[in-house]
Design brief:
Radius of gyration: 14 Å
Oligomer: single chain
Number of strands: 10
Shape: globular
Amino acid sequence: MAEIKDPENTILMELKDGTVTIELMPAIAPGHCERMKELARAGKYDNVAFHRVIDGFMAQTGDVQHANMENDYNPRRAGTGGSELPDLKAEFSKIPHDRGTLGAARSQNPNSANSQFFINFKDNHFLNGQYTVYGRVISGMEHVDAITKGEPPANPDRMISVKVAADA
């Protein structure tokens, strides 16, 4: 496991194959980082499916409304919902969408990100300046690479648990 420099701004995501350690970037995207920690601390990300996983592109998850595989899971609606919290304003930066970065998923409206996010499988620089980058995988990327692919996957993988390292 990677060395955790700032436990309050580090996420531990448990997947079927192991732990993914994510370093958040509160100096770059404070609102998005706070939202991820708030939802993680409330247990909202636990058991949420990876509902859109495109090989060579990214793995998307975080629909806490429709994609909790233990509570009212709706595969047809997974990817259309968010949390009960208000949408976030875009926090675009010069940080590129490199392999392992977290991007905020949203609709056409740049200020519509809520709870969903994606992890880039490769450098996706065509997304730069269009989606908020607010974290980076610092260990366990091999577990992200092993997530079942599909739009949606027939048997989706899930985030078993998501915790703030300071609380773990």
